[in-house]
Structure formats: C-alpha cells, structure tokens
Design brief:
Blueprint: E1 4-6, E2 9-11, E3 18-22, H1 31-44, E4 48-53, H2 56-59, H3 82-89, H4 93-106, E5 109-114, H5 117-125, E6 131-133, H6 141-148, E7 154-157, H7 163-176, E8 181-186, H8 201-209, E9 212-216, H9 223-230, E10 235-239, H10 257-274, E11 294-297, E12 312-315, H11 326-329
Parallel strand pairs: 3-4, 3-10, 4-5, 6-7, 7-8, 8-9, 9-10
Antiparallel strand pairs: 1-2, 11-12
Helix pairs in contact: 1-4, 1-10, 6-7, 9-10
Length: 349
C-alpha cells in the first residue's frame, strides 16, 4: 500500500501512526478555549487537529418531532433535538481561520470535516490540506463526490456502513478523482465499548478496498488504539478536551491532554514493536547468547572415565555443547583429564 502525504507528513506502514486530535464541540462555544485545545494538541505530539464545519441549519431542520429527538437513554445527548445539539456543538465558521492559523504556527496540521457542499467551498478558501468524512455522512454520495473533486486526500469513517455501502462510497470517491483515500474503522456509539469495536476488521478492510485503514476511536483509554496499530492501523483519531470536568457535548468520551500524550507514545511503541517476521537472535541479542544453557563438566574427571549424570550438567553459561547432545554424550568415554566448570566440546570425547 502506497504512502499518502497528509499535509506534508507521510502516512503508511513505514511511518509511526498519524494521530488526529478531534476538537469537535469541546470548545463549549469559547474561541479562547478552542485555541487552548489547539495548544494542548500540539503539546501532546499529535500530528493533526480536526474541527467540524457545519451549522445547525446545514445539518438538520429545526423540528421537535420524534424523529428529530435523541431518545436513546444511554446517549450523552438524550432529550435534545438534533438542531439543539448542533447549535451547541458547532464551531463558528469565523473561528476557523484563527484556529487554522494557530495550529500552523505550532506545527500541527489543521483540517476539518465538512457536512455539506457549502462547507467544502469554505474550507477550500482556508487551503485545508485534506478532508475527513464523518461516519454519519459516509452514505452521502453527493458530498463524497464534492470532496473528492478537490483532488485532495480523503479520510472516511466507516461507522454503521455495510461492505456494500462502503464499496459505493469508495467507488464514488475514486470515480471523481480521489487518488489518496484512508478508511477509518469506527463504532458510532458514544462512548464505544471495546467488545463492540471489532478491530479485527482492519486488515480485512485493508485487503477488501486496497486502501490504508486506521481507527476512529470512541472508547475510553488507549488500549483499543494501541491494539489497532498491531493490526495495521496507520491513522488514529481521538477526541480531545482540556478537562472532562468542563462538560460539553463530547467530554465524556474525550481524552485529556496527558492521555493524548500517552496515546501518541504508546501507539508509536506498538508500531515500533511490530518490526518484521524474524527468528533467531537479533543484533541486540547476540551478546546474550553466552548466557544460554550448555553442557558443562560438573565434577573433576580423569581420562578414561565415563560421562554420567553425576559429572555432566546442562547449565548456564553457553560456551559448551548444545543441550540437545546431552543424552548422546552420556556413557561416552572421557578423552582427557577435565576440571569441574569446564565447558564440554567434541574434542573432550
């Protein structure tokens, strides 16, 4: 699978995981807090900061009918209308430019998730380097085509989508000109539970669609993300908040800065540990070979004596014959006088 350039950073199996800090609505309608989240994301070592570009009116209708209500008892947004949720969570469009500017000043890549065609046009004026499609929009083929027509890399979350639906999405993006595409395995529950995350899908999805695959992770902690790297995930996306106690629409399943820093470090370690298929001592292990077990004379013996379990032992260090020869050597005649603590060689038989 070819490497993909995301805002000047290479993404692929030969590079550490590309970590995306998702701001979402954790700014709680404060530009000052939004900029503080940018600062925190940069300090954690994340590669990119993602925001979302929509308004309540571009997302839904201002209706209180049952189908526009969030009724799931486990949802952090229970009893809100969709319109109310998006009014609370959206990032004002006039904030985008200062957020992008701050991120670039700090060396972290800013980009966004557009939710309709007007958002794409707006983000083009900010020169966003690539785009993200959210899980709930991965079936919006007109939006997919609009984004793909920019020619920029696309990251698409796959929550809820069947393989057939993803096939339609991927084909639509490619037909319109998207050459660089990354899919993110995603479970669209908030928070998500590890036992409902099914990250074993990652290598299957990679083979099925011939694209790089990552993880958009709504679970708590770092375990699922770290495990996904061992399955080939090249991109990890996690929500970031300054402090979960601040509240907000996504705070309950967002990482705090110290946790995001740990995510960056631990996913990199997981990537480093994968290495390649290898047997035998590594270069670093070669100096340890001397401490393996081998056959030693454990009591003084004279020429003509017989090697027995009483005068031979398999012990550390490893300067004698391999232990696999121990049973064959028992009963053999001693060729020359030997002191206890002498490593056995074929010349001693």
């Amino acid at each position: 699978m070819k490497e993909i350039d995301l805002g000047g950073q290479k993404v692929g199996k030969n590079n550490p995981p590309f970590i995306i800090a998702e701001m979402s609505g954790n700014h709680n309608q404060s530009l000052e807090k939004a900029l503080q989240i940018v600062d925190a994301a940069a300090e954690t070592g994340a590669n990119a900061l993602k925001i979302q570009t929509y308004t309540a009116d571009t997302m839904t209708l201002d209706e209180a009918k049952n189908e526009f209500m969030i009724t799931d008892a486990k949802s952090p947004w229970k009893n809100k209308t969709l319109y109310e949720l998006y009014q609370e969570a959206y990032t004002p469009w006039e904030w985008h430019e200062p957020i992008f500017r701050r991120a670039r000043e700090l060396g972290i890549i800013p980009f966004s998730t557009p939710f309709d065609e007007t958002a794409v046009d707006f983000l083009e004026t900010l020169n966003t380097p690539f785009y993200k499609i959210a899980s709930f929009e991965n079936n919006d083929i007109p939006l997919i085509k609009k984004v793909a027509s920019t020619g920029k890399p696309m990251i698409i979350s796959t929550g809820m989508a069947t393989a057939a639906e993803l096939d339609e999405t991927v084909k639509a993006a490619r037909e319109v000109g998207c050459k660089d595409l990354i899919l993110l395995k995603c479970t669209s529950t908030y928070p998500a539970s590890p036992n409902n995350t099914n990250i074993i899908t990652i290598p299957h999805m990679k083979d099925l669609f011939q694209v790089q695959v990552g993880l958009s992770d709504h679970t708590l902690g770092t375990g699922v993300a770290v495990a996904s790297v061992s399955l080939g995930a090249t991109v990890i996306e996690k929500h970031l908040t300054l402090d979960r106690r601040d509240g907000g629409v996504d705070s309950t399943f967002s990482m705090e800065p110290s946790e995001m820093e740990s995510l960056v470090e631990e996913t990199k370690r997981a990537w480093q540990a994968m290495g390649m298929v290898h047997y035998g001592p590594t270069n670093k292990e070669k100096s340890s070979l001397q401490f393996r077990r081998s056959i030693y004379v454990s009591k003084d013996v004279k020429k003509g004596d017989i090697f027995t379990e009483d005068n031979l032992r398999v012990i550390r260090p490893g300067y004698g014959l391999s232990p696999k020869y121990y049973e064959k050597i028992l009963g053999k005649q001693v060729k020359n006088d030997m002191k206890s603590g002498t490593p056995l060689t074929w010349d001693n038989l």
